[in-house]
Amino acid sequence: MNDKFYVTTPIYYINAVPHIGHAYSTIAADILARWHRLCGEDVFFLTGLDENSVKTVESAKKKGYDNIQAYADYMATRWRKVWNILNISYDDFIRTTQDRHKRNVHDFFKKLRESGEIYKGIYEGLYCEGCEGYLTEKDLTDGKCPFHYKEPKKLKEENYFFKLSNYQDQILEHIRDNPDFIQPEYRKNEVVNLLKEGLNDVSVSRPHLEWGIKVPWDEKQTFWVWFDALINYMLPRGYWPADIHIIAKDILRFHCIIWPGMLLATGYKLPEKIFAHGFLTVKGQKISKSLGNVIDPIYLADQYSADALRYFLIREKTLGQDGDFSERELQLKLNTELADTLGNFVHRVLTFIRNNFNGKVPKGETDYKIKSKLIECIENAEELLDEVKINQALDEIMLIARIGNEYFQKSEPWKTIKEKHQEAANCMYNCINLLESLCVSLYPFIPSTCENLSNQLNIEISDWSQSKKFNIEIGHSIEKPEILFEKVEVEKEVKEKLISIDDFKELDIRIGRIKKVEDIEKSDKLLKIKIDIGGEIKQSVAGLKETHNIVDLEGLKVPVLVNLEPSELMGVKSECMLLAADSDGKPVLLKPESDVEAGVKVK
Ligand code: MSP
Predict the structure, then answer these.
(1) pLDDT per residue over 495-527, tens digit each?
(2) How many angstroms does the Cα of residue 557 sit away from the middle of ligand 1?
(3) Phi, psi at residue 360, to the nearest 5°?
């Protein structure tokens, strides 16, 4: 029997489509799955969707769906599409609205109830719908959820509770006895501190929800979405316990406290390891729909290739810590590392063999110094992959391409080919073996590129050990070389633009009074607005139709940018702009603190 390896990603909420943060977790899990498969292990890689959230209902309604399941089905196709584009090799895709999952939840709950760990009680406290989690005052920053920047709801409701507080000591003991259970180390310390503060029992159901899995004997109660979601991991029973749950730091508590508590109470084994990575940020800010900085992985894959994106996301940041995403950095890494270092090495070796040795690997001698450097890199990478230090493993592997380029350069085969033919042959023999190693060891990271390379090398990628064997035989034919990565143009570095007070003074902002509002019938969003800016009337075309009623707008006093270059929108002239805050994509008009005359300057 081969060793088994069971890896999971979080199951994602379906109120939005995947962004590069979700892609990051999924790619990390995919790399581990592909690596363990190459090592001959019996791998199960599970990802999927967490569909029973109240957020599903809200976004279905916002998007005009009456049938929430139809919305969930539609979103599932969108998520799968992204994972297909990014070459995610999942073995199963769980959706928590599937019957197989509902059955698992019912079974799990039955066990928990039979163990005497469930009781009915009143929950009075805070709830963040963004997290779908119960919070306490001390979880908040400035009264808001630190992950969703929103004030939590105050709830008082009758729920079923799970006696989580009974498991505090057992969880602490487990963490102490299994030093790798929570990784990285600093996340483990966070969890230990939380546990030492003491645990409350946790509600596992909520009343009166229109969507979700109902408690079987009490149809008024719906399982709390986290209770149902965590049980998804039990889907492939034969593979349980999971060897690793990949998550990010935002969902540490659910995975490292509630989930172990649930498993201990039901007598199931605990997962071997929970690895919580950091957040990808954009200009230092969390990626989120409400901040409007979401980056679409489909766009990036389309623009630069899925492998360039996979490579960059993993290469760029230490799994564990936060790291900033920049498209410009992606372009730079693509050019310098994938096109120059890797692509160049592949191309120069294959072209040389084709042009000088008729496309056949020449008879050459192994350079043991090169071979031992290669083995060292691969063994380091293995160790690092075992420790889930994926980016460092990738560095080690890319070192092989650097070593190869240096060796090629130093050996100068283009000179020795004439008089010292054997030296050129030796060089090629060693280089082609380095290429085989790269082709196999990079496969978990950039699979399509390596498949393409394996075609050019005329080999099959079947076993990780190929990466350190110097397997390619003398006389082996190679195929026509093709470029692996085209270089891209690198954006100019954009320095954050600062404006002077004099620049600001050039903006003529005044308080305007909205006089008349007319519908622009051809448009779903735009209204034609006449504004009195102190004796003069100016016209603006503003995207307020979806959020404001015409009657409520008339008479309002708002700041208006008056000296705006006129333009036409839908054929209607617009010569000034109402100022509004952008709240989650919705315009919220600004108002003066107290009544001011129309025409007064804003400075
Ligand atoms: N549905 C829950 C998880 C249930 S698992 C039993 C959930 N879903 S989520 O859609 O909000 O996804 C959260 C996960 O997405 C994070 O834990 C992380 O894996 C990934 N990421 C979301 N944004 C991210 C970044 N900006 N950066 C890195 N990973 C991010 O929570």
Answers:
(1) 666 778 888 989 999 999 999 999 998 888 899
(2) 42
(3) -120, 140
